[in-house]
Amino acid sequence: MEENKKPSFSWGCSTELMMYDDPWKLKKVLNSSDVGSLSRLLLPKEMAEPLVAAVLGYDENQKEGMEVEIWDVDTQSMHSLVFKRWGSSRSYVFMANWTKDFVKRRSLKSGHEVAFHWNPYANRFHFSVLKSATEEDFSN
């Protein structure tokens, strides 16, 4: 007869197996406005909000935003963007050098999936391209 299992603890630590926790908390499939001439990556409010306190502090209304470092884990290179709330839409954006440092340098296209996560120990974002755009993406 199977009994309800309780977590086993030893010296204050659980010995239960924990499933993999995906570090890439912020993922986005790029669209044409993200890779176009607007020079910004738009992140929906619900996607970016968990990062706001960590990055911008509690003053969400900062009009200037905050310059943040971004470590590209794929190319092992450091970049700098501005992270801020985008006016009336209440979404968030990465801007300033987005097109030069990411779209052009990494040849990003509509359909690529990119990801970010905040590293509180290094006080910076980490960035990666998770999936490349496929020909199927361009045929729609």
Automatic annotation (TrEMBL):
Entry-linked Pfam families: B3 (PF02362)
Any single GO CC term annotated in Swiss-Prot or TrEMBL for this entry: nucleus
Keywords per UniProt: DNA-binding, Nucleus, Transcription, Transcription regulation
InterPro entries assigned to the protein according to its UniProt record, in alphabetical order: B3_DNA-bd, B3_domain, DNA-bd_pseudobarrel_sf
Residue stretches making up the TF-B3 domain: 28-129
Chief subcellular location: nucleus
Location(s) in or outside the cell: Nucleus
One MF term in the entry's GO annotations: DNA binding
Full protein name: TF-B3 domain-containing protein
Species per Swiss-Prot/TrEMBL record: Arachis hypogaea
